[in-house]
Write a structure and sequence with these properties.
- The complex is a heterodimer of chains A (about 180) and B (about 325).
- Chain A has one domain: Alpha-Beta Plaits (2-Layer Sandwich), CATH 3.30.70.20.
- Helices cover about 20% and strands about 25% of the residues of chain A.
- Chain A has six helices and ten strands, in the order βαββαββαββααβαββ.
- In chain A, the strands form four sheets. In chain A, strands 8-1-10-9 form a four-stranded mixed beta sheet. Chain A has a two-stranded antiparallel ribbon with strand order 2-3. A two-stranded antiparallel sheet of chain A has the order 4-5.
- In chain A, a hairpin with a 3-residue loop joins β4 and β5.
- Chain B is built from eleven helices and one strand; from the N terminus they run βααααααααααα.
- Helix content of chain B is about 70%, strand content about 0%.
- The chains are: A alpha+beta (about 180), B mainly alpha (about 325).
- The interface between A and B is large, with 50 and 50 residues.
- β2 of chain A pairs antiparallel with β1 of chain B.
- The complex binds iron/sulfur cluster (2 copies).
Chain lengths: ~180, ~325
C-alpha cells in the first residue's frame, strides 16, 4: 500500500477550507498549521498566470526527516505515512532542518508535529479531513497501488508534477497541472 | 520570467518567512566541540611523540579545559531541545543514519575519557591535590598507567568529534549551503586551529609556542584552501547552491564573512604569528583571541545562513 494525494491546481480556488478543517480535526494550536495554500504568480501584467496549491507534508518515499531523527520518533507506518511519536521526540529540530518543504513545525508543547494523512480517520475507513471538506473537490486521496483509487484515476488522465523533485526525497503529493 | 510565491494561512513561529529553528545554542555547541577536539588531539599527539616535558601546556594543562568545554557544549545542546523532559531518549537508541545520534554518543565517550586524562595529571598539576579516598587514589594511578592507550583514543575521538561538528550540518540535503561534504574537514581543521590558539594563549614556554604557531599556520592555510574550494563547489553546482553562495558574495553575510572571519579571524592572526616567529614582539593573546572569535563566528554564520537557504519551488 502506498498512500498519496493528488491536488488539482486548476480546480483549487485557494479558499483555505482544507487548512481550517485540518486545524479543527487535529487540534492544531492557534497560529500553526499542517497544511497551507501557496499562490504561485508567474509572468507580468497583462500576461499573468496564477497557480493555487494546497500543500502539506509529502510523506516522501525517501524521507530525510526519518533518517536524521536521533531517537526514532519520526518513523514510517503502513502505507508510507510519515509520523512523529510525540513522547519519543526530544525537539532537537533536526527533522525540521532536513525537510525541503518546511512541512514540520515545533509544537508549543515542545515536540515536532506535522500532517499525518489523518491516519486516525483512515483507520475508521474515512478519508482525510481536508479531502472531505474541499468545496471544489480538487483533492484526491488513496492508494497508488490500487488502480481504482481516486488518486490513481486522477493521475492516469492528467499531466502532473511534484515539487522540488531535485531534492531527491521522492515526494508523494502530485499536483495536476 | 517573473515569478512570485505567496503563502496564505501560514505564519508559523521560527519557520516562516524563513527557517530559524536553531539559535545560538547550536553554533556554541559546535564551537566548543571543535575547541575540545583540537586540544585533545594535540595532547594525545605530543604525548605519543614523548614531548610531555617540552610541551607541558599542551599535554598536561590545556586538557583541563576540555571537560568544561564538553559539558558546556552538552548543556548548550540540551538548551536547544524543545522537549527537554525526553532528553534521555537520545541515549536509549543508536541511529547511525542520524548524525545527531552518533554525535551525542561520541560525546558520551569523549567526555569521560577527557576527565580520565585530566585525572591522570591531577597530582602533577596540583601538587597539593588529595584524592581523599584510597580507591580514587588507586584509580588515578591506574589512569597514569594507561596514558598511552588513552592518548591514542583521544586522538581518534578528537577527529571523530571534529568531523562530526561539520557533518551535523552537511547531512541536511534540504539546506543547500550545508549540503557539501567539505564542511566536515573544514570544521575539523577550524576546530584544531581554535584548540591550538587556546593552548598557545596558555603556554608560557617560548619553544612550545613556536612549535604550536608553526602547526597553526599550516592549519590556517588548509582552512583557507577548503573555504575557497567550498565556494568553487557552490558556484559550479545547481541553482540553489549558487544562490546559497551569493549570501557570501554580495549578499547579507558578505561583510561578516570576509571581514570578520577571513581577514580578522584568519589572515590577520596568521600574519601576527609569522611576525612573532620572525622575532617581533607580539602580545600572544591577540592572535589567539582573534582566531577563537573567528572560529565562533564561522559557526554562527554557517548555522544562521544555512537555515535561510532552501529549495525554491
Ligand atoms: S515533506 Fe518533509 S516532513 Fe514530510 S516526509 Fe518529506 S521530508 Fe519528511
Ligand atoms: S525534533 Fe523530534 S522528531 Fe524531529 S528529529 Fe528531533 S527527535 Fe526526531
Amino acid at each position: 500500500m502506498r498512500y498519496a494525494m493528488a491536488i488539482d491546481t486548476k480546480k483549487c480556488v485557494g479558499c483555505g477550507d482544507c487548512v481550517v478543517a485540518c486545524q479543527t480535526e487535529n487540534n492544531v494550536p492557534h497560529g500553526y498549521c499542517r497544511d497551507w495554500i501557496v499562490e504561485n504568480v508567474a509572468g507580468s501584467y497583462p500576461n499573468v498566470e496564477i497557480e493555487l496549491r494546497s500543500e502539506r507534508c509529502n510523506h516522501c518515499d525517501n524521507s530525510p526527516c526519518v533518517r536524521c531523527c536521533p531517537t526514532g520518533a519520526s518513523h514510517i507506518i503502513e502505507g508510507g505515512i510519515v509520523k512523529v511519536t510525540h513522547n519519543e521526540c526530544i525537539g532537537c529540530g533536526a527533522c525540521i532542518q532536513s525537510c525541503p518543504y518546511d512541512a514540520r513545525y515545533s509544537h508549543p508543547e515542545g515536540y515536532v508535529d506535522k500532517c499525518t494523512f489523518c491516519d486516525h480517520r483512515l483507520a475508521k475507513g474515512q478519508s482525510t479531513a481536508c479531502v472531505e471538506v474541499c468545496p471544489t473537490s480538487c483533492l484526491y486521496f488513496g492508494d497508488l497501488e490500487d488502480p481504482n483509487s481516486d488518486v490513481s484515476k486522477a493521475l492516469k488522465n492528467r499531466a502532473w508534477k511534484v515539487l522540488a523533485p531535485e531534492a531527491g526525497t521522492k515526494p508523494q503529493l502530485y499536483f495536476l497541472t | 520570467m517573473k515569478e512570485e510565491l505567496f503563502v496564505s494561512g501560514r505564519n508559523i513561529p521560527n519557520i516562516d518567512p524563513y527557517l530559524n529553528i536553531w539559535h545560538w545554542e547550536i553554533p556554541v555547541y559546535l564551537f566548543l566541540g571543535g575547541l575540545a577536539a583540537g586540544i585533545m588531539f594535540f595532547a594525545g599527539y605530543f604525548y605519543i611523540m614523548r614531548k610531555e616535558k617540552d610541551m607541558a601546556t599542551t599535554v598536561k594543562f590545556a586538557p583541563f579545559l576540555v571537560p568544561f568545554a564538553l559539558v558546556l557544549g552538552l548543556l548548550a545542546l540540551f538548551l536547544d531541545l524543545k522537549h527537554q523532559l525526553y532528553f534521555w531518549r537520545l541515549y536509549t537508541t543508536i541511529r547511525l543514519e542520524s548524525p545527531m545520534s552518533w554525535g551525542a554518543w561520541t560525546l558520551m565517550f569523549v567526555t569521560p575519557l577527557s576527565m580520565l586524562w585530566v585525572a591522570s595529571y591531577m597530582k602533577e598539576v596540583f601538587p597539593k591535590w588529595d584524592w581523599k579516598f584510597k580507591i580514587l587514589e588507586q584509580f588515578a594511578d591506574l589512569t597514569i598507567k594507561y596514558r598511552k592507550a588513552m592518548a591514542w583514543a583521544l586522538m581518534f575521538l578528537a577527529v571523530v568529534l571534529g568531523v562530526y561538528t561539520g557533518i551535523l550540518l552537511s547531512a541536511f540535503n534540504a539546506r543547500p549551503l550545508w549540503n557539501t561534504s567539505i564542511l566536515g574537514p573544514l570544521f575539523l581543521v577550524s576546530g584544531m586551529s581554535t584548540g591550538l590558539a587556546a593552548i598557545i594563549w596558555m603556554s608560557k614556554s617560548k619553544y612550545e609556542r613556536k612549535v604550536l604557531s608553526r602547526i597553526d599556520l599550516i592549519f590556517i592555510g588548509v582552512e583557507l584552501f577548503l573555504i575557497i574550494h567550498m565556494f568553487m563547489g557552490f558556484m559550479a553546482a545547481s541553482e540553489v547552491q549558487i544562490e546559497a553562495a551569493q549570501l557570501f558574495l554580495g549578499g547579507e553575510f558578505t561583510v561578516v564573512f570576509w571581514v570578520f572571519i577571513i581577514i580578522l579571524g584568519l589572515l590577520f592572526p596568521a600574519t601576527l604569528e609569522v611576525l612573532e616567529l620572525r622575532g617581533f614582539h607580539i602580545p600572544i593573546w591577540i592572535p589567539s583571541l582573534l582566531i577563537l572569535i573567528g572560529g565562533l563566528l564561522l559557526r554562527f554564520v554557517m548555522v544562521e545562513a544555512g537555515q535561510i537557504t532552501r529549495y525554491l519551488y
